[in-house]
Amino acid sequence: MALCTYDEASRTWYGVQRVSIYNPMANVGEVLNHILLRTPDRTIQIDMDTGSRLSCAEFRMRMVRFAQHLTDVGLRKGDIVAMANGNSENVAPLACALMTLGAPFNPLAPGFNVEDMAHMLRLTQPKMVFCDDDNVEVVRQAVSSVFEGEIPIYVFESQRGDVKHAEDLLIPTGKEEQ
């Protein structure tokens, strides 16, 4: 990409053309995407528990991959997602991906018991749930008491073989820059 271009007709030099972040028609995800593109090397997130740092470029890549994989599994604008998990390094990129897709999310306390979890799921009727390894059984029981069919439950930071792993939604798609 050229750093600048010259328009002979108007006899004007132009720098790199970037989309304005002040676009009133842009959703929050689009604005975040453009901001992250402008400062790829800056640290945007530090995980207090692990000390892990994410640059804007890494954060954006996770956000894009979450958005692409969630779209591939059928999540659409307006679909509600429940997030019953504690904070970890992939929660913020997931939340930003959901905002990009226009999918509202309902953050739930990971310490809810089955009755409280079921009550909140009944109220919001999410299309899928994200949770942690230590509350997946509570979430499963709540989901089975509220929904007749199954809805996807993705588990963060789990070694279990009987769950869908949220980290699988971060596998490269090959179309992250499209």
What this model shows, in words?
With 178 residues, the chain is α/β, with parallel strands linked by helices. It has a single domain (25-169), classed as Rossmann fold, CATH 3.40.50.12780. 34% of the residues lie in helices and 17% in strands. It contains 5 helices and 9 strands; from the N terminus they run E-E-H-E-E-H-E-H-E-H-E-H-E-E. The strands form 3 sheets. It has a 5-stranded parallel sheet, sandwiched between helices. A two-stranded antiparallel ribbon has the order 1-2. Strand 1 (5-7) and strand 2 (12-14) form a beta hairpin. Helix 1 packs antiparallel against helix 2 (56-72), helix 1 crosses helix 3 and helix 2 crosses helix 3 (91-101). The longest helix has 17 residues, at 56-72.
Q: Topology, pairings included?
A:
Blueprint: E1 5-7, E2 12-14, H1 28-38, E3 43-46, E4 53-55, H2 56-72, E5 81-84, H3 91-101, E6 105-107, H4 114-124, E7 128-132, H5 136-146, E8 153-156, E9 164-165
Parallel strand pairs: 5-6, 5-7, 7-8, 8-9
Antiparallel strand pairs: 1-2, 3-4
Helix pairs in contact: 1-2, 1-3, 2-3, 4-5
Domain AMP-dependent synthetase/ligase: 38-148
Protein name: AMP-dependent synthetase/ligase domain-containing protein
Subcellular location: Peroxisome
